[in-house]
DNA sequence: GCCGTTTTCGGCCCGACTGTTTTCAGTCG
């Protein structure tokens, strides 16, 4: 994330906290700052590209007042209003507001009674019993505050989508095993397939009388580490796996659609939908769609029913991020998103010839036995990748012979020849064109210089007529390594001109391109590939992760190259070579 | 503070759980 965006996001989040703390009547102002903070944090481009063009107010949630503050910050490095606000509250204490149980009103009372000014003092006062002497702070509340303080660190770290899918399914299976349960489904950001997941949401239906029994069974499961809350219709627990929070909601079977809609989010999508419903004289809650005047329930059994009653076509969960999907749905223009079954082959993987764990024949037999693919492309590393056992030109020639041998043995032209060739610091490749020309598919990737601006390097690679695709283009590793700076608009323009595809790499910690960049690529007319970059058997299953990214980027089958037959892909490569 | 195919003013989604209360505020998702 661009540094300025991060700084501004933090400032606006702080301002939101300050307004919540100061005065309940400023609630909506606080919400506005909160929203601005989130939007700016999610922004792909550096905010200064907006300030330069005077387009700040085109960002949703940014109006004239916040735009002015952004300009002030970009120009002077400060926001006067924020500086003066900071002096009126114990700002160091408000850091705690991100922790559950530490709301503005509680912190305010603690500050006023104990004259405490920072988070460490609050923690100390909690532990030595001073806070439990304040009216309204009983033993349970203090215990809860101490507990969530302890949990805060581990729970705040988000988990990778892949891990969340595995953990979520484990819990989901437990519900499906209970005979009282009618339906159970993963909801929340997990259902929308965000690249990282905060907590796991599960929705369950049953007869009303079975609710208590289900909750009781659930909180007693061995996989539950700690119970945070439980009532008649919901429960929150921490599970052993990844130390993550799981929220369960139980509803009646005829509320399935409205509850799923509500529990899937995103929050922004729901708020927009509810606002529209309200304008039309309806009210949406997790219990259904209601006519405000008569109080009559209009819909709620399925999500589709609710969308339709409000004049929308149904919207896939991956699109529910308030990015204009409701406008499209109103015009019946929701794209037909790519699905896993559309994928006809895997475009990047490694064998024992470089750093993979399977030899070519085992690999081919495994994939053709477990996946319905028409082709796979073997893309072992080139010589610069010494640690990964990268190969030189002669070794690639030998490998081509081996691939032919295996294909003959399998009696089909299943394995395509290829490489993941290194893009060197100067933008040149570390394999000779004479070799690249002989391969079916060339993917070029950056493996060094992660802190530099790599725009020109990627462009240079695109301009080589034997390069068909750029691999893991942004170089980020989720939670470990930031993406290197790149002028993406420029890069995607060149990609389009040169007929170079860009990869959506499915490795669980890469997910690269991410959804935002995939949107930008698609809008620029750049073709995408979805590939697992598998190094071992289990990783071929990552393909679904890439499909999820593509769906979040509103991609159809036509945007994804490897939904096509190999003949089509060959034509794509040939067009570039002829240019 | 943001926002607008009924509004440039007057709205701003909706309900459950907890704890400490005698009817509700605070917090959360």
How would you sum up this structure, described in words?
GO terms for molecular function: class I DNA-(apurinic or apyrimidinic site) endonuclease activity; DNA binding; DNA-directed DNA polymerase activity; exonuclease activity; phosphoric ester hydrolase activity; zinc ion binding. Residues 54-73, 94-113, 129-148 form the Helix-hairpin-helix DNA-binding motif class domain. This is DNA polymerase beta. The longest helix is centred in the first third of the chain and has 20 residues, at 3-22. It is built from 24 helices and 17 strands. A hairpin with a 2-residue loop joins strand 8 and strand 9. It is globular and about 80 Å long. The protein is of the alpha/beta class and 579 residues long. The strands form four sheets. Strands 11-12-13-14-15-16-17 form a seven-stranded parallel sheet. A five-stranded mixed sheet has the order 2-4-7-6-5, with helices on both faces. A three-stranded antiparallel sheet has the order 8-9-10. Helix content is 44%, strand content 14%. The mean pLDDT is 90. It binds one DNA strand of 29 nucleotides through helix 2, helix 4, helix 7, helix 9 and helix 14.
How would the blueprint of this fold be written?
Blueprint: H1 3-22, H2 27-42, H3 48-53, H4 64-76, H5 80-86, H6 91-94, H7 104-114, H8 119-127, H9 139-156, E1 159-160, H10 161-177, E2 183-187, H11 188-192, E3 196-197, E4 200-205, H12 211-219, E5 224-230, E6 234-239, E7 245-251, H13 256-264, H14 267-279, E8 282-285, E9 288-291, E10 297-299, H15 303-309, H16 325-330, E11 345-346, H17 360-370, E12 375-381, H18 393-410, E13 415-422, H19 433-436, E14 441-445, H20 455-462, E15 469-470, H21 488-498, E16 501-505, H22 515-523, E17 528-531, H23 543-552, H24 566-578
Parallel strand pairs: 4-7, 11-12, 12-13, 13-14, 14-15, 15-16, 16-17
Antiparallel strand pairs: 1-3, 2-4, 5-6, 6-7, 8-9, 9-10
Helix pairs in contact: 1-2, 1-7, 13-15, 17-18, 20-21, 22-23
The chain binds one DNA strand of 29 nucleotides through residues 19, 26-33, 35-36, 60-66, 100-106, 135-138, 140-141, 144, 188, 199, 201, 229-234, 236, 247, 249, 262-263, 265, 267, 270-275, 277-279, 283-287.
């Amino acid at each position: 994330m661009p540094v300025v965006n991060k700084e501004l996001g933090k400032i606006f989040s702080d301002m939101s906290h300050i307004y919540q703390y100061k005065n309940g009547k400023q609630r909506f102002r606080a919400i506005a700052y909160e929203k601005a903070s989130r939007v700016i944090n999610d922004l792909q481009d550096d905010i200064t590209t907006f300030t330069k063009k005077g387009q700040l107010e085109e960002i949703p949630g940014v109006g004239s007042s916040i735009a002015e503050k952004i300009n002030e910050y970009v120009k002077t490095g400060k926001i006067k209003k924020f500086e003066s606000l900071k002096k009126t509250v114990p700002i160091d204490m408000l850091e705690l507001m991100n922790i559950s149980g530490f709301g503005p009103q509680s912190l305010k009372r603690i500050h006023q009674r104990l004259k405490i000014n920072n988070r460490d003092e609050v923690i100390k006062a909690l532990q030595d019993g001073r806070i439990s002497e304040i009216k309204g702070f009983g033993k349970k509340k203090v215990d809860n505050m101490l507990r969530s303080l302890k949990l805060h660190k581990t729970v705040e770290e988000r988990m990778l989508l892949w891990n969340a899918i595995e953990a979520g399914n484990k819990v989901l299976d437990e519900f499906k095993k209970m005979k009282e349960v009618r339906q159970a489904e993963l909801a929340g950001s997990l259902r929308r397939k965000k690249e990282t997941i905060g907590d796991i949401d599960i929705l369950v239906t049953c007869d009303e009388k079975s609710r208590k029994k289900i909750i009781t069974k659930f909180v007693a499961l061995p996989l539950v580490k700690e119970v945070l809350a439980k009532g008649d219709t919901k429960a929150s627990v921490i599970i052993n796996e990844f130390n993550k929070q799981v929220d369960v909601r139980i509803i009646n079977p005829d509320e399935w659609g409205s509850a799923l809609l509500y529990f899937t989010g995103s929050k922004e999508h729901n708020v927009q939908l509810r606002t529209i419903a309200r304008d039309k004289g309806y009210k949406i809650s997790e219990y259904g769609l209601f006519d405000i005047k008569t109080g009559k329930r209009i819909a709620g059994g399925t999500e589709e029913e609710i969308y339709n009653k409000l004049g929308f076509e149904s919207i896939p969960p991956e699109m529910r991020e308030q990015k204009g999907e409701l406008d499209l749905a109103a015009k019946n223009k929701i794209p037909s998103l790519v699905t896993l079954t559309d994928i006809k082959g895997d475009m990047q993987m490694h064998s024992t010839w470089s750093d993979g764990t399977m030899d070519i024949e085992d690999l081919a037999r495994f994939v053709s036995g477990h996946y319905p693919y028409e082709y796979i492309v073997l893309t072992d590393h080139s010589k610069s990748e010494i640690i990964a056992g990268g190969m030189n030109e002669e070794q690639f020639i030998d490998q081509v012979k081996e691939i032919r041998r295996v294909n003959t043995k399998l009696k089909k032209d299943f394995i395509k020849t290829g490489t993941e060739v290194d893009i060197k610091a100067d933008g040149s490749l570390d394999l000779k064109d004479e070799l690249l020309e002989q391969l079916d598919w060339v993917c070029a990737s950056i493996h060094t210089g992660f802190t530099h601006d790599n725009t020109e390097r990627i462009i240079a690679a695109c301009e080589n007529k034997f390069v068909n695709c750029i691999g893991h283009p942004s170089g980020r590793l989720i939670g470990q390594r930031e993406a290197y700076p790149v002028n993406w608009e420029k890069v995607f323009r060149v990609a389009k001109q040169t007929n170079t595809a860009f990869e959506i790499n499915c490795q669980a910690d890469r997910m690269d391109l991410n959804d935002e960049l995939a949107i930008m690529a698609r809008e620029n007319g750049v073709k995408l590939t979805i590939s697992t970059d598998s190094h071992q058997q289990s990783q071929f299953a990552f393909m679904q992760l890439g499909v999820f990214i593509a769906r979040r980027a509103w991609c159809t089958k036509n945007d994804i190259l490897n939904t096509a037959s190999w003949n089509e892909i060959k034509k794509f490569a040939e067009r570039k070579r002829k240019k």
